[in-house]
Amino acid sequence: MPPETTVSPARGALDAKRWQALVFIAMAQLLVVLDGTIVTIALPSATTDLGISDGNRQWVITAYALAFGGLLLFGGRVADLWGRRRAFVIGLAGFGLASALGGAAQNELMLYSSRALQGVFGALLAPAALSLLTVLFTDAKERAKAFGIYGAIAGAGAAIGLLLGGALTDYLDWRWTFFVNIPFVAAAIIGTLMVIREPEEARNRSSLDVPGAVLASLGLVALVYGFARAEHEDWTETWTVVMLVSAVVLLALFVVVEARTKAPLLPLSVITDRNRGGSYLSLGLAIIGMFGLFLFLTIYLQGIRGYSPVRTGFAFMPMVVGMIIGSTQIGTRLVTRVRPGLLMAPGFAVAALGMLLLTQLDMNTSYWGIIAPAQVLLGLGMGTAFMPGMSLATERVKPTDAGVASAMVNVSQQVGGAIGTALLNTIAASATTAYIGARFDGPEELAPLPVRAAGAVDGFAQGIWWAFFILVIAAVLAAVLINSKGSHGPAVSQGGDEEGAPIPVMAH
Asked: What class has domain 18-208+265-481?
């Protein structure tokens, strides 16, 4: 990599190329987020082409989730130690190579391996991207705009993945859901090497906390796998219970180790701060509801209403538009004027209203009368809440801890997604079984198709009710826990306990 020369400009000086840097940071974030859903649409075609059994097909999703979720904290701290720019480029390159492997897969082992490698490098890339944003944008108003764009991409990426995955699968081939990443990766690497410079003072010079890294990674893998297994098996199934109990034990040991070590992987002050902790918690709860909704609506539109993959992707566009408006217009304009809690709580409440509207789902629900308006409310609410939530979650931490604080944002989202998919899917499945059992005296799979379809929709509606209550809880927690007055000055702490001191930037 080209040498980087540190300068010490006047206090408060800003990186001249920070807005150009944002383009490539946002591009990388979009890759990571949409990759969680783009492959979902292509999964039936890929598994048929490669001869993957129904019992094993979930590993295409699970391999990515385990590697990504399990290594996020480790990846965040590695970015702090190596330098975020270096970690960002390595993460991009590895993600691109893993995508090429997936697109060229000739058997299920190659496909599983590529997805796991995408997760590994994504766990390095995602926290490096967010922490670069954190250390490059220290002026309050500029930080609001940058996080508005970032928040819109983070929120809308999953829906964009559904649209892109559907288009590529329908008009080209499932392999292009992997190959499409490569040109974006190449552009992001070239742009990063040309315009991104990292403040030297933001580098963490301590040693890696190996016991903490091992405990955190194993604990998070056990947690994500436990919920993934519960979705396909049962909550009382032996390995599900073993994984979830192991996760609790390992993460408890991790907290004990972090409290005693001199150079912790995750300084506990990052999560015990009332405002950051409240942000992580409320964002995680919101993601539980959102992931359940994506699951239910995708199955409803394709399986019940007969939408094609492309039409399904377009059907999510009202939510994408709402998120972009909520994040880049409402959140960005208000975040420097009102407390973050006064944006996050109402934002989650508006999203809950959208979810409440979707509880009316039935076999013939009007798309334009109910589904589209509900998505607009969800998008506006989530976009408005995500923007200050992500900014607050990385605010006023030492620059040397920006990577691991950023990783915690991704951890809350990843764990929330795993819980949401497993928990709400279980609730929906139970409601479907009860509905069919009340109308058909016999095995569920032998029930008439109209009864099974109606039972599935009833299950979706029951799951959405739970998602509504979870969003209400997220709104309440944001209102109660988050009392920060917001960032009206520089947002990243510059060493020690001092908060708000500007960071020197790199010369170009």
From this structure: mainly alpha
